Amino acid sequence: MEFKKALDVHHFQSRMSNFFIIILGEGVLQLVKDGPLVLGLNGSTGIMVWILLIYYEFSFLYFNRDGSRRFIPAATNKGRKTLTWVLWHIPLFSSILTFASSVMFIIRHQPDAPYNSPGGQAGEAQQIPHDDLPRYLYRAVWTCASSLGIIMLSMTALALLDKSLDEPGTLKVNNRYIRLSGRVVYIAVIVCVPATPHMDARLFLGIAAFMLLAVTVWEWNVGLDRGGALIEPMGLSHMMSRELTS
């Protein structure tokens, strides 16, 4: 079997990135257009803030890759690496859709949620006996946890398929495996959180969002120029130091 690159590999890579944005946008659209957020502030607003935060962090981590400043994208390679890069997008996209469906189920079945969809979701909610609802919500939490773990695993694999060209000592942490270590911790922890009996869905999504925020801040900070301040690039730190000493 012979593997060849696409005729316009950069266009193909751009199309995959655009499709990723569309998949994320579908999840956000469910919350905004004819969804819970259109009703304004209510008892379910907090849980929707966590979900929006998770979607934003997904977009940052996907496009941040492994944090390298200079790299060769996996899509531009010839052979199995390019095919592997394409295949890893399948669990990534499918898990994002599964996560979006699970969180919508959780939102629509919160006790204080005033949401009634025009498509008959209210009638669907009444079909679930009240005594069985906690069991279904717990299953939805497990689905969210599994989806989050697969999403993070897929994005980590995609990031590692790129070839870093950064010179030693240019970033705060040049070892990209250390830069991505937070993702491994996230995967290991998030799939274990629902093991707590009677885990509340709101609490789970809050934990997932804050843990993902910690991973995002870590990767953003360790990918800055070496010599910079905690949250500043090296150039800004040197400029401020020069102004203070002059």
TrEMBL record:
Bilayer-crossing regions: 12-32, 44-64, 85-107, 140-160, 180-197, 203-224
InterPro entries tied to this protein: Low_temperature_requirement_A
Alphabetical UniProt keywords: Membrane, Transmembrane, Transmembrane helix
Protein's name in the database: Uncharacterized protein
